[in-house]
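In the design runs reported in the main text, the only information available to the sequence generator was the tokenized backbone. The following block is the verbatim input for one such run; it is reproduced so that readers can re-run the procedure and compare outputs position by position.
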């Protein structure tokens, strides 16, 4: 009888993967060194007794927020990963400075953008320290889009426990003062996966240029999406699975 119930349960889960997905969700607020409130959302599968989860950090495009990742977070959660979505300062819910004045990315100076990598490291360190009973950052990866991709490289260079891989959607050599070639050269054992849309010659050229500085593998992929950054995930529904498959090789 127990065997019949088990087979039936597995059959139902196969028909509807969402039925099996139970997660723990946490909204996070971290104060940056200059008092800016950085908001993030942390989610991981709810699995009884499991204490170790590989983690994927998501850093969005310029002008967007962590709400625009389409199906990628769910795809990663279904793979058994924890997902940390961070709203970069001036975006999404991360819009209040130390004086509680609302600040948009549109009015920020390059000096403010320069704090992005430090903000991200601070959020990751917070999640790591607040979850000492569970291990989230022994194995981890970053997915970043345009300015998020640049921030990913700079943050990875700053942090002591390096990600296994970085996925860059529409990579940029220098955006809002975030120049990344030198920092990319410092990542000796971090493989890169650069993705561009079919109508993104600037991103494709940036990938070719950045590959010169990579000290590990640097793979490229051209999506059928005629768009850039995280919007490619909306226009190319296969992209979430492609990214997840790449990350599976490392985590």
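Verbatim output:
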């Amino acid at each position: 009888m127990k065997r019949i119930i088990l087979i039936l349960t597995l059959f139902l889960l196969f028909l509807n993967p969402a039925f099996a997905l139970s997660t723990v969700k946490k909204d996070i607020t971290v104060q940056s060194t200059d008092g800016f409130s950085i908001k993030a959302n942390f989610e991981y599968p709810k699995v009884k007794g499991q204490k170790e989860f590989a983690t994927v950090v998501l850093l969005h495009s310029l002008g967007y927020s962590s709400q625009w990742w389409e199906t990628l977070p769910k795809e990663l959660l279904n793979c058994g990963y924890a997902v940390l979505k961070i709203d970069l300062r001036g975006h999404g819910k991360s819009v209040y400075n130390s004086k509680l004045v609302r600040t948009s990315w549109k009015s920020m100076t390059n000096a403010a953008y320069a704090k992005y990598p430090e903000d991200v490291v601070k959020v990751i360190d917070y999640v790591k320290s607040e979850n000492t009973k569970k291990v989230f950052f022994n194995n981890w990866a970053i997915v970043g889009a345009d300015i998020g991709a640049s921030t990913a490289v700079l943050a990875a260079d700053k942090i002591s426990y390096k990600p296994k891989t970085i996925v860059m959607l529409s990579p940029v050599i220098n955006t809002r003062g975030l120049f990344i070639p030198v920092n990319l050269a410092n990542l000796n054992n971090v493989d890169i996966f650069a993705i561009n849309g079919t109508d993104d010659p600037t991103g494709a050229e940036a990938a070719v240029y950045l590959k010169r500085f990579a000290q590990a593998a640097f793979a490229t992929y051209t999506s059928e999406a005629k768009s850039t950054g995280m919007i490619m995930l909306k226009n190319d529904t296969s992209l979430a699975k492609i990214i997840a498959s790449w990350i599976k090789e490392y985590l």
